[in-house]
Design a protein that fits this description.
This protein is mostly helical. The protein contains ten helices and no strands. The chain is elongated.
Length: 228
C-alpha cells in the first residue's frame, strides 16, 4: 500500500551498461537489471530531496552513474523515470498482516499506510509520487497501477475473513481495502487535517463496519453463494 519499499533498492555500480530502450531485464542479476535498479534508486533519492518539480534526468544520470544519453534513450523523460519506478514497485511483494482477525488486520494495513507517508525518508518520496500523478497523466496511470496492485495484494486479509464467516460471501475484498485507506489519503492530500494512529484505526474500523453491514459487496454475488 505505502511506498516505503521503494527505498530498498541498492544502486548499481557507476558505468554499468544499460539495455536497449524498453528492454526488460533478462535475469534478476543481469547488467540491465542492475542499471534499472540504480536509476530507480537515484530517482527515488532525487524525489526525496527535491520533490517532483526538482527532478531532472540529468541529476538522476549523475547520481546513478549511468550515462545521460542512456537514461534519455531508455526512459525518455522525468515521467518515464517515475512510471518505471512505480512499475517496479508494483511487482514487489510487501508484508500483509495475518492475525486471524479482520479488525486487527485492517488496523495493521492502515497503520502501514500512515507509517509510509510519515516516515522521514519514505514520506517525501511517496508525497512526490502523488504530486507527480496530479500533474502528469503518465505518472497518474503508473500510480493508479501501483495502488491497484497493492490493494489486490492486501485483499487476502478480507478473503480470509470471508472464509472464516466474518463477512458476507460476496464481499468485494479490494473495495474493503480501498475504503479503509481512503480517509488517510484524504487527510494527507486534500484536507491537511492531522493524522495519527487513532485516525488510522478509526478508518479501519469504519471499513470493517461497512463490510459487516453488507455495504461493500460485489455487484454480482458468486453463483451458489449466500448473502451472508
Amino acid at each position: 500500500m505505502q511506498l516505503e519499499l521503494l527505498l530498498s533498492v541498492e544502486p548499481a555500480r557507476p558505468g554499468d551498461p544499460a539495455g536497449r530502450p524498453g528492454e526488460r531485464p533478462a535475469r534478476p542479476g543481469g547488467r540491465t537489471a542492475r542499471v534499472r535498479a540504480s536509476v530507480r534508486a537515484a530517482t527515488l533519492a532525487e524525489l526525496g530531496e527535491k520533490g517532483y518539480q526538482g527532478l531532472t534526468v540529468e541529476a538522476v544520470a549523475e547520481r546513478s552513474g549511468v550515462h545521460k544519453t542512456t537514461v534519455y534513450r531508455r526512459w525518455g523523460s522525468v515521467e518515464g523515470l517515475i512510471a518505471d519506478a512505480l512499475e517496479l514497485a508494483s511487482g514487489e511483494p510487501w508484508p500483509v498482516p495475518d492475525t486471524g482477525d479482520l479488525a486487527s488486520d485492517l488496523r495493521a494495513l492502515t497503520r502501514e499506510v500512515l507509517a509510509g507517508f510519515t516516515d522521514p525518508e519514505a514520506g517525501p518520496v511517496a508525497t512526490a509520487f502523488v504530486s507527480a500523478a496530479v500533474q502528469n497523466p503518465a505518472a497518474a496511470r503508473a500510480l493508479h497501477a501501483f495502488f491497484a496492485a497493492r490493494h489486490e495484494q492486501s485483499a487476502p486479509v478480507v478473503r480470509r475473513a470471508v472464509a472464516r464467516g466474518e463477512l458476507p460471501a460476496d464481499t468485494d475484498a479490494a473495495e474493503v481495502v480501498r475504503v479503509a485507506v481512503a480517509p488517510l489519503y484524504y487527510r494527507l492530500f486534500v484536507s491537511g487535517e492531522p493524522i495519527d494512529p487513532a485516525v488510522a484505526d478509526r478508518a479501519a474500523d469504519a471499513a470493517l463496519a461497512a463490510a459487516r453491514a453488507g455495504a461493500l459487496r460485489t455487484a454480482s454475488p458468486p453463483a451458489g453463494s449466500s448473502a451472508g
